[in-house]
Amino acid sequence: QLADPFLYNTGDRSHYGCLGHEVQIDYLKAYVSRPSFSTDKAVIVAHDVFGWQFPDIRYIVDLIAGHGYITICPDFFKGTKPWTSTDHWADFPDWLKNHDPMKVDKEADVVLKYLKEQCGAKKIGIVGFSWGGMAVHHLMLKNPQLAAGVSHYGIVRDSEERYSLLNPTFFIFGEKDHTISLDQIFLLEDKLKQYCKVPYKIKVYPGQVHGFAQLKPEDMKPDDKPYIEEARRDMIDWIKMFV
After folding, report:
1. Cα(6)–Cα(52) distance, rounded to whole angstroms?
2. What's the number of domains the chain is made of?
3. Edge-to-edge strand ranges of the sheet holding 169-174
4. pLDDT for the residue numbered 214
5. pLDDT per residue over 101-131, tens digit each?
6. What CATH number should be reported for the domain holding residue 82?
7. Which domain holds residue 187?
8. Which of 4, 5, 148, 211 is the Cys-Cys partner for 242 at CB 3.0 to 4.6 Å?
């Protein structure tokens, strides 16, 4: 069963023929991709503002599955409309109020239960991008069932309790990210040194802008390609180390 064609035109996005399929879990829809062999390791992918059907995020799900993990991207927006490239930035704060990356605990629990009970997963990690990076940072502070996390350019800013991570977490940033200043990254590093009791890593990729790590190969600019590929390898290495 093939996924529906994507309804978004986010600029010059190439279409992507997915390897996985869509499932219904409780009240959530999700996209699942499995490796060619059976495994008890799984990874949850937390999408960005463009939602769970966006081609770039499905490409990442398939990529991680190719490394030997049952990989799943649930619709954290619960059927509501994702942000699209034709929406107006002036409306973004209101949209974000109804799509809070700190309010993902219930969805995470539904997906964890599914992975354990229906897929036989014993060890589960999570990776997220932008909005999803913030969701990952939040969940790594709250949910001990997640063995490891990778947060791409998402910092939890509006909370005091943001440094006592429960399990190993890797933070990926672009040097030229207009939404996250280097000062914020240095502060994160400084505070994690003080408060964090588990392995963590922060890495800044030269010249990269917000959203760089989830581009599909045909959408990459040649100058950025080595950094994007490095970020992917680093993400997979972190997951392999702990999941």
Report:
1. 10
2. 1
3. 21-25, 28-33, 70-74, 41-46, 123-129, 146-152, 169-174, 200-205
4. 87
5. 999 999 999 999 999 999 999 999 999 999 9
6. 3.40.50.1820
7. 21-242
8. 148
